[in-house]
Amino acid sequence: MRRGSFHYLIVPGWHGSPEDHWQSHWQRTLPHSQRVEQADWLQPQRSDWVAELSRGIAGAPEPVVLIAHSLGCVTVAHWAAQAAPDALRRVRGALLVAPADVERPGCPGPLRNFAPLPLASLPFPSVLVGSDNDPAASADRSRAMGKAWDSQASVLSGVGHINVASGHHCWEEGLAYLERLQSLLNEQARRRA
Q1: Which of 188, 174, 180 is nearest to 10 (CA)?
Q2: Taking the model in full, what pTM does it have?
Q3: Per-10-residue mean pLDDT for the chain, 193 residues long?
Q4: Are 60 and 92 in contact (CB under 8 A)?
Q5: Which residues form a coiled coil (predicted)?
Q6: How far is it, in rounded angstroms, from Cα 92 to Cα 181?
Q7: Peptide bond preceding 116: is omega within 30 degrees of 0, i.e. cis?
Q8: Which residues, 6+ apart, have CB-to-CB distance to 34 below 8 Å?
Q9: Does domain 3-192 have CATH number 3.40.30.10?
Q10: What backbone phi and psi angles, to 5 degrees, belong to 148?
């Protein structure tokens, strides 16, 4: 699949992604990309976030590849669990990075309305990247989310929440996971041909 044949939709997590976050860098460098903007980044409401994601997908000029981080991953799962078949067909795949476990002990209050985590298989190919020292989700919980969502899951060692605070600005290494997703999409297209 050629990179230009779909639209990258960046789905940030809680607090959004600042200018020096890898999602912002990727948005500036990947062709055909835009960001889902939320009305309230600090007090997220699941229904509002899912509705904004739905609008972003519906408004994209081409089929979509989602690039989600943290609470954005959970938003993608909630959207997929309730979206209409026509909307689901607009999404070709998703890269899910450092998904937030909104059911964990001590989960910040503003994120709790995203629980329970949807545990249905995503109806499109996905690659999940977690970390063994992410305060937002343990390695076991990241693997469990990957299994439930039928994602190709990788748990990296010592990379934290894969955000600015853990030293990930451009996160060039992450592009390998986007390439892995694109390979899955190519395989799927060959099987359907």
Answers
A1: 174
A2: 0.95
A3: 72 96 96 96 98 97 96 98 96 98 97 97 98 97 98 97 92 95 90 80
A4: no
A5: none
A6: 10
A7: yes
A8: 7, 8, 9, 10, 27, 56, 60
A9: no
A10: -60, -40
